Amino acid sequence: MNTKNQRIADFQALVAANHGNITDAFTKAWESVGSVGEVPRLREFLSGANKGVHLLNHELPKHFVSRGFELKFAAILVHAKPIVIPLENLKTGAIKTGLPANPELGDLNVVFLFLDRAKNVKMARSILYQAKTVRKSLSQAIQDPHQIYLYDKAQGYKYRDGPYAGEVRQLPIAGQRRKGLHYLFVSENPVACSASPADRPAYSNWSESMFRLLMDAEGIGIAAGQARGSGWSKINEDLVHIFKHDAKLRASNLSELASWFNSFKDPNHWFEEASKEAKGINTMFVIIRDQKLPAGDEEVPEPPKLVRREYIPPFETMRTSSY
Question: Can you tell me the distance from the alpha carbon of 168 to that of 179, in angstroms, rounded to the nearest whole number?
């Protein structure tokens, strides 16, 4: 096992040992949010002082620093989201007809970044969330047919507007969708989520989902360098490139965008707001810097499968809800 893989394994073992601290912190971060409604709650979670993402910076890093890992949580708030046209067939470009509207691509993109000592991205994964206030029922996550089709069935989509209007992107195959396309219920207590498909939901507390992301059990890998093709890495690259010409956030790749926040000594610099013209998705970064991993170690776009499964609590359908 090379140095990079060993250090990732060390980090995952430390995450497993701090399962309670991690889930408690993510739960507390949402409990501190007092706004009502999907959009106000998301905005407050991302940007509110001493709550949400900011609170995570004061709750979790202390459990990792003694082993050489620095943690930083950060967020970018975006006002306009790209509208997409779901595609029934990628090869022919056939558009799914009969849907009431073209859906938004998502409401929140959570990006996990593992950096070496020199702050180079060595591993990246992400989960894209469609946010609602509460779930529809125990047996049906949401009821919007256009959102359901996009996340559960569409082979891909075409951008209807924005800087990539007309371009086609490929969504993950069925088995991968459960790792990367999720529904988020921001007004439930505790805040809950479910992987697709919507008609076979596997509800979980969002705090457990974040624990699983840290353990490499959820999220889909993003190429560390320039994305090839039109799949998941390209979708995430789109969401970064949206800021390439932004007057406030000029970035052309994940490393540049994350560099806005990777001063690990300053937990109070956690938030930036994109310009009004930017069309993207609210983004939350979970950034890990390994002070013991030297720069120049082998870069591997997809992360190694190092997870010890006994560490990871399975998704369990939640039979009760407080809404």
Answer: 21
